[in-house]
């Protein structure tokens, strides 16, 4: 399989504006997601400045920015500020706050006010069902299933993605996003599970061309890499 034949949308996951612009200019990535943890890793000092600049630079594909307060009234205010940065902005709302209180009513309010919502940190079918019951079918939305973390718990994420994909596609304007990817094979899993979107980090986007690579060729390339690295370091056994 050639990665350019993929039907699933690839979104870049990160918070480096220069890298985001570079990926956007290549024309393959169809959206961008970020969160406070990625911004911390990228050294972002001012959330609003970053979000405003990113939205000014990238206007024609979806951008997801996350609220970061823990109480729902403040989340609502933050969501409206972020949404104003552009028509392509999706506001990420966590499925619960840190106390485990469900965000359902906030999601309902924002979605029915016309805000594009990306509900994040969804792990179960039951959570997805509750979220879809709150989302306005007339307004575009994303349900982000954290498949990578689900598999870290020793649970197969594909059946969950399949069920949620079916529910979302019946709902209308909701798309399923395979989040927290760990390896390139997740792209194959996400597509065959019916997900609409998968987020990939820079490292995974970089190796997309290896998708479908001949395994004998890959084996030879690997042997050459080990040999060349050993030679470059001057290692000796004899």
Q: Which structural category do the helix and sheet elements fall into?
A: alpha/beta
- Give the SSE order as H and E letters: EHEHHEHEHEHEHHEHEHH
How large is the share of residues in beta strands? 15-25%
Largest sheet: 8 strands, parallel, barrel
Distance between the termini: 43 Å
Oligomeric assembly: single chain
* CATH level-3 fold name: TIM Barrel
Number of helices: 11
Mean pLDDT: 96
Strand order of the largest sheet: 1-2-3-4-5-6-7-8
Number of strand segments? 8
| Share in helix | 40-55%
Contiguous runs where pLDDT drops below 50 for at least 5 residues: none
CATH architecture label: Alpha-Beta Barrel
Shape: globular
CATH superfamily: Aldolase class I
User: What's the CATH class label?
Assistant: Alpha Beta
Q: What is the CA-atom radius of gyration, in angstroms? A: 20 Å
* Whole-number tally of structural domains: 1
């Amino acid at each position: 399989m050639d990665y350019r034949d993929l039907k699933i949308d690839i979104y870049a996951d990160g918070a480096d504006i220069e890298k985001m612009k570079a990926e956007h200019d290549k024309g393959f990535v169809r959206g961008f997601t970020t969160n406070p943890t990625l911004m911390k890793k990228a050294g972002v000092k001012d959330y609003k400045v970053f979000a405003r600049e990113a939205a000014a630079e990238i206007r024609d594909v979806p951008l997801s920015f996350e609220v970061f307060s823990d109480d729902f009234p403040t989340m609502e205010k933050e969501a409206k500020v972020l949404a104003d940065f552009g028509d392509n902005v999706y506001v990420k709302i966590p499925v619960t706050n840190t106390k485990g209180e469900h965000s359902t009513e906030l999601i309902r309010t924002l979605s029915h006010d016309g805000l594009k919502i990306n509900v994040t940190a969804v792990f179960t079918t039951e959570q997805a069902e509750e979220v879809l019951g709150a989302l306005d079918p007339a307004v575009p939305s994303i349900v982000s299933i954290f498949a990578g973390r689900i598999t870290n718990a020793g649970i197969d994420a594909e059946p969950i993605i399949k069920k949620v994909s079916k529910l979302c596609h019946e709902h209308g304007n909701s798309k399923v996003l395979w989040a927290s990817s760990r390896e390139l094979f997740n792209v194959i899993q996400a597509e065959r599970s019916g997900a609409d979107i998968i987020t990939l980090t820079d490292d995974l986007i970089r190796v997309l061309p290896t998708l479908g690579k001949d395994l004998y060729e890959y084996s030879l390339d690997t042997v050459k890499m080990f040999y060349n690295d050993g030679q470059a370091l001057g290692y000796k056994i004899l």
